[in-house]
Fold each of these.
Amino acid sequence: MKEPMTRKLSVLRVNRHEASEFEDTIVKEHSATIKINDREVVTLLCSPMDLEYLATGFLLSEGLLKSRDEIIRTSMNGDDRKSTVRIETKDSGNFSKYASSRRLIASSGGRGSSYGNALPDSQPTIESRVEISASEVLALVEDFHQRSPVFEATGGVHSAALCRPDGILVFHDDIGRHNAVDKVFGECFLKDISTTDSIIVTSGRVSSEILLKVARRRVPVIISVAAPTDVAVQLAENIGITLVGFVRGNRMNVYTHDWRVKIDGK
Amino acid sequence: MKEPMTRKLSVLRVNRHEASEFEDTIVKEHSATIKINDREVVTLLCSPMDLEYLATGFLLSEGLLKSRDEIIRTSMNGDDRKSTVRIETKDSGNFSKYASSRRLIASSGGRGSSYGNALPDSQPTIESRVEISASEVLALVEDFHQRSPVFEATGGVHSAALCRPDGILVFHDDIGRHNAVDKVFGECFLKDISTTDSIIVTSGRVSSEILLKVARRRVPVIISVAAPTDVAVQLAENIGITLVGFVRGNRMNVYTHDWRVKIDGK
């Protein structure tokens, strides 16, 4: 389903002394229910695009899918407001475990049980020797900002991208910052695009949940235009991930494993 | 528990040609488990402040608490990273219903089962005749932006406030935009501050879930500095809530029930 992500609407623009009608563009909100082998896993509020990537990425982030061979087929139906994405797998064992796991719901963007189930020490260290220069970080983020006409028009979506140091490979928008990241990983998984030695760029803040999604896909570098939390920084340090935040103008903050970020001319 | 919401950390600030260490301030991430009558309801990732307000507000937003009389006592324990908030109620009936309800997890900020359980038509229309002038909206938002030294220092929190047209009554910060709103409603509930005829201001985007929280507390006006989704606009229209978005500089967009917003001198 490739529904447009936005809708036109008549809105009153008001300042202190006057008001006028204009036609505004706002983001659509869609409800996607994910089923594995006909059992409902979750319902996500999301943008109505690339829902198979979203479903796959969500299951990856939750540790419910490991390899593409597990998927027999995916299918989807729905309307403008609601969809159901069905994923048929060879083994339903993982899901039973999930259904009985603790429900954890999180800070703005809260989702899933990852945090409760994947404590820092249970993630093997990421050894990737990939490096990126400060200029490459700035160029990636500049390109990233130009990739979202939906954000430009509505201000209502987050974006995420999988990159190599020299450019963006996969890019997605969603009203949820978690969904945008899941769509990226879902597409990579279904298209066999390797995520190791790559870089994730996100428009959203980096909490423990986002950091753990990235760790699960063995991505060694995460770049955010926004702020991280202290737990995300601690996890990144422990797992061996380079966490870059507040990329703005010509500068950035490097919170962990700064050896992967090279200064130009050094 | 009044833990500070932030932590100092040594960070590398990098531009194209140089790097230097500095001491940065970042937000803490905390894990709060809410229990009703010793049964676990949810674990929220949040800022470590005002957790009793957070727990109470969450239960209100989920429709699990109706009146203050239902609460026999609240208690809390924990450490720097994790807390448990226990709420003892007279009747545990509501919770059983909750535990068996569909799990709905949402776009960035996703939470709870509100959306699945409270469809537009099930919310009685809000009849409040409260009015606010465009200048009062601008003044509230200006004051709102100045209330958060944590945002100023870290960029890592959302804020929410309960207001009257002439000023802010209750204000909270949290790493989650949902949590900030829940803390506001939790404090109002525990202190018997009426939310009818009042105004909610939020720094976050307005999705259906946020709109429904506000509807549950019978608040007739929601003001956001950010974007709404189309479903939030539709719900606001149906329920009788004035939804104002993108309050920036000297202007704003009024999406629904614009008769409550008065132009100065008219």
Amino acid sequence: MRPVAIIGAGKTAFGAFPDQDLRALAVAAGEKALQNAQLEPETVESFYLGNFAGPEFTSQNHLAPYISTALGMTGIPSTRFEAACASSGAAFFQAFMGVASGIYDVVMVLGVEKMTCQPTPRVTEILSGAGDCATEVKAGSTFPSLFAMIARRHMHDFGTTREHLSAVAVKNHANGALNPDAQMRKVITLEQAMNARPIAEPLNLYDCSLISDGAAAVVLCAADRAREFAVDKSAKPVKILGVAQASDWVALDQKPDITTFAAVRGAAKKAYEMAGLAPGDIQFAELHDCFTIAEIVAMEDLGFVQRGRGGFFTAEGGTRRDGPMPVNASGGLKSKGHPVGATGVGQICDLVQQIRCEAGDRQLKRHELGLAQNLGGSGATCVVTILGEY
Amino acid sequence: MRPVAIIGAGKTAFGAFPDQDLRALAVAAGEKALQNAQLEPETVESFYLGNFAGPEFTSQNHLAPYISTALGMTGIPSTRFEAACASSGAAFFQAFMGVASGIYDVVMVLGVEKMTCQPTPRVTEILSGAGDCATEVKAGSTFPSLFAMIARRHMHDFGTTREHLSAVAVKNHANGALNPDAQMRKVITLEQAMNARPIAEPLNLYDCSLISDGAAAVVLCAADRAREFAVDKSAKPVKILGVAQASDWVALDQKPDITTFAAVRGAAKKAYEMAGLAPGDIQFAELHDCFTIAEIVAMEDLGFVQRGRGGFFTAEGGTRRDGPMPVNASGGLKSKGHPVGATGVGQICDLVQQIRCEAGDRQLKRHELGLAQNLGGSGATCVVTILGEY
């Protein structure tokens, strides 16, 4: 496999955009990524779309050619990839292989989701399709309640507290407040976070990520051709050092232990191996905080902290922008927003911004080596990506 | 790119199976393919699922790990690919690249759809998501009416007749009657086919493919390792000589000419080039006859006959099992059934059966080199695959 670089990145703000349909959002992000790479659409050889539930949110299916043609790309392979909330992470993984293997030189990966067009109960219902409908969903579970069980068990096994969970929310809101593209730019206090109304106990309103519209896109290129594009060097290429995807059972009750995800550990192991790096080498990370407990579990599964220590480390400030391992400097899914199919590529765009020193007020000091972790369902899919300075 | 072989194939019958849910169908096909290859599930390194609208038909989403774990595969990348009715063709294309590039040695591609759990009007509505919902569907178009327009224009431009369309139906029903896995094993006369009740004029009931449940799976392997598996030689490996995917606008009104599909011509050109073959070299084909007119147009776009001659050639018997270019010896989507997400891999299984001389009563005389054409929507996606004897 040959080295692959990201030569262009672009995304929309995440939020509620009643005037923009799914395709308009996708095209906006795709055009930004092309502009960033200074590339004509005709140069793109294959189009990889990550989208979880466009047909259920908007009726429109067959979304890949629906979007790629509107971006000026016709004739090329154009396919949608679905892996729940890790859909665009999965698309990125396949796109990486397409270039790394030498089949393509230049491809685009785009993630998009349009969720706010449906009322909240219907959104929850659509999202629950990422769980096991025959068992979990039939029994009344929703994603907040599944992650509530995970939180409850983590508290029981490791002494994680209500305050630990809220420390994740407070930190991510503080970061998101500095992100002009974030959906909820609102600093919250620990007291506010701890006393918000319950959603699925022990999780409350501030433990849950947002319902969002948004899109994000990146252009991948064979590393040895990266310098041909973005010729004025305004858009510095970024190296893909490692990327891996792993899977596990969809239903939570099939897992021997619900406080750790085998798919996350498996994908991380492969991505670290590919990059020739260890968890301690990573300087910052964008983690899949669909719920506050998910960020804590991810910290542990990725090897950033010991098992059971994620909550304590967070409460001690370890994951703040000025801490030893900054997590979700973007604001995370919690504050930046979580348009599910866009989240994986959105995280990659956040890493690219940091590595390029384009993150403005939330720019990190150590920003040469970042990791993104994109989770699908309650741990049935995980994609881990490691990016580094060129 | 290195050579790739199919070392195992398996499918369910296509039909209405109220007692089997989507996962049960998928697992049945997947297990047959593993048995055929004499392979343990642990040997499979990546899982590629083709499915068009499982979440809308059955509520269950995140289908790839939902199925692969039930097949005994955990930890591996497991992703769903969607490209309308070409979903499993698209999955096959990506899986081929995964092995051809040397990333994987052994992978599984599985296509599945469960459609009969919804009433027919809702099925039509779900399928219309493969068209342009903002224009075509909003204006009341359904897939029968889109293909009716194509038929009408083909008749106007080339003199194709009502009898030509029915000749496709009569031939495919005659073939399907010999296929124990076909949904509608019923011979029909030309008179019956011509006088059936109208669906969207000029298309009548016998011009339309079926609403089906079903699944199909194949195991791909690096050709140089193919002989390690199926050691008793019961399952002869089959070579993948060429495979390509192309895309075009989803909406019919964006095409300069609706009687020919650029995506089909584009995918065919690339697949022929990869195989080093011309249309005249192909001995038999499985074409995407979602409607009778689609088979006629495909014949022309693939270069089997001259533009405008597809109907005449069919009426003259050219595509019968004993004709110069047998098409849909399986019965096609028309008689065998069309569980949309399974159709692409189902066609591949049909080619494999013929090449291995396992097609029973419908076995063709010239069966060493076959082509499958899998179409998504009204020509927005096409995957063309050419298989040959090992």
